[in-house]
């Protein structure tokens, strides 16, 4: 008999076919709406494996209901939506999908940086709202990107990929990371800085560090006041790293020039959230990895992680 697998969202047919060769597969049929908690609580009692998304909260209370669960595969690089310690205590392996979305997320990060710096969404709305009357010397002027200084917080694979793109714009690359990356420094011409110095020197600050207890509220009013008033803050990592109340105040009072966010503390963000009222904020709905090729690749990798585990291979396990 095949092991039982529950999938928390509708997946592409090719991924289901891949999984069905190794599992008895059941799952939530919606592509857009997360599986209700009560259904997930019921299903997790029965299954040997779980295929989930970053929008699914897999906490200790849920894991306590799991009787036979051996492995969880998340369709994401981040795994802060899963209680890793609780899973480990119950001998449940957790896997993720690293590497495959590195370049795609770096592309989006740089696109968001450019859109925010040059006020692209605002300019588009200006035109669509029939507000374009004539050429004006300082209408919709933004910030230059070329030859500016970019500070990258978190210099893993995605951070380094952003640095490569920045070098194409002749930017001066600074970075902060828990540990120095000497080889990457030499290869990319990047300079290590302590966090406060990076914030003071950078024209663009890009957050690309994983979310953890240490990085929660890493950027608060104190850090924002260290930044240049002309600086732009970009976050494509995780919500919660930037304190949103403090960011709102900084944008309103001109402590920084603008911000671009692909992630928020609560997702989806409420449409009446105060950040969304600001003209100097560009907001995206967590689309860092959102290209067809990358998302299909993530689906396949998350599936392969489950298959590998059941065959005794330990692929992309994040909890030991």
TrEMBL record:
Q: Which UniProt keywords apply?
A: NAD, Oxidoreductase
- PROSITE patterns tied to this protein: D_2_HYDROXYACID_DH_1 (PS00065), D_2_HYDROXYACID_DH_3 (PS00671)
Query: What is the scientific name of the source organism?
Result: Lysinibacillus odysseyi 34hs-1 = NBRC 100172
Any one Pfam family here would be 2-Hacid_dh_C
Instruction: Name the Gene3D superfamilies on file.
Output: NAD(P)-binding Rossmann-like Domain
| Gene Ontology CC: one annotated term | cytosol
Residues covered by the D-isomer specific 2-hydroxyacid dehydrogenase NAD-binding domain: 110-288
SUPFAM superfamilies per UniProt: Formate/glycerate dehydrogenase catalytic domain-like, NAD(P)-binding Rossmann-fold domains
Say which family it is in: Belongs to the D-isomer specific 2-hydroxyacid dehydrogenase family.
MF GO annotations: glyoxylate reductase (NADPH) activity; hydroxypyruvate reductase [NAD(P)H] activity; NAD binding
**Keyword ATP-binding annotated:** no
**Residue span, D-isomer specific 2-hydroxyacid dehydrogenase catalytic domain:** 7-316
Q: InterPro entries, from UniProt? A: D-isomer_2-hydroxyacid_DH, D-isomer_2_OHA_DH_cat_dom, D-isomer_DH_CS, D-isomer_DH_CS1, D-isomer_DH_NAD-bd, NAD(P)-bd_dom_sf
What is the designated name of this protein? Glyoxylate reductase
Q: Has UniProt tagged this entry with the keyword ATP-binding?
A: no
């Amino acid at each position: 008999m095949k092991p039982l697998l529950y999938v928390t969202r509708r997946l592409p047919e090719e991924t289901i076919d891949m999984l069905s060769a190794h599992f008895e597969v059941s799952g939530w049929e919606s592509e857009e709406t997360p599986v209700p908690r009560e259904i997930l609580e019921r299903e997790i009692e029965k299954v040997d494996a779980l295929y989930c998304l970053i929008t699914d909260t897999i906490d200790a209370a849920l894991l306590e209901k799991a009787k036979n669960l051996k492995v969880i595969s998340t369709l994401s690089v981040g795994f802060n939506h899963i209680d890793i310690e609780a899973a480990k205590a119950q001998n449940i392996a957790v896997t993720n999908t690293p590497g495959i979305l590195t370049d795609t997320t770096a592309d989006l990060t740089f696109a968001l940086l450019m859109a925010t710096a040059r006020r692209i969404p605002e300019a588009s709305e200006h035109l669509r709202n029939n507000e374009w009357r004539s050429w004006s010397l300082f209408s919709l002027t933004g910030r230059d990107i070329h030859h500016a200084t970019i500070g990258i917080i978190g210099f893993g694979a995605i951070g380094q990929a952003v640095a490569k793109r920045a070098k194409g714009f002749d930017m001066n690359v600074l970075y902060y990371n828990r540990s120095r990356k000497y080889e990457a420094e030499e290869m990319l011409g990047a300079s290590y800085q302590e966090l406060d110095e990076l914030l003071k020197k950078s024209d663009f600050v890009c957050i690309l560090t994983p979310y953890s207890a240490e990085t929660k509220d890493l950027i608060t009013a104190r850090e924002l006041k260290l930044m240049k008033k002309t600086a732009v803050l970009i976050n494509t990592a995780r919500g919660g790293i930037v304190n949103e109340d403090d960011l709102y105040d900084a944008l309103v009072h001109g402590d920084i020039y603008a911000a671009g966010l692909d992630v928020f503390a609560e997702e989806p963000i409420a449409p009446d959230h105060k950040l969304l009222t600001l003209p100097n904020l560009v907001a995206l709905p967590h689309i860092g990895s959102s290209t067809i090729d990358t998302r299909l690749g993530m689906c396949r990798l998350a599936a392969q992680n489950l298959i590998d585990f059941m065959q005794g291979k330990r692929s992309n396990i994040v909890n030991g």
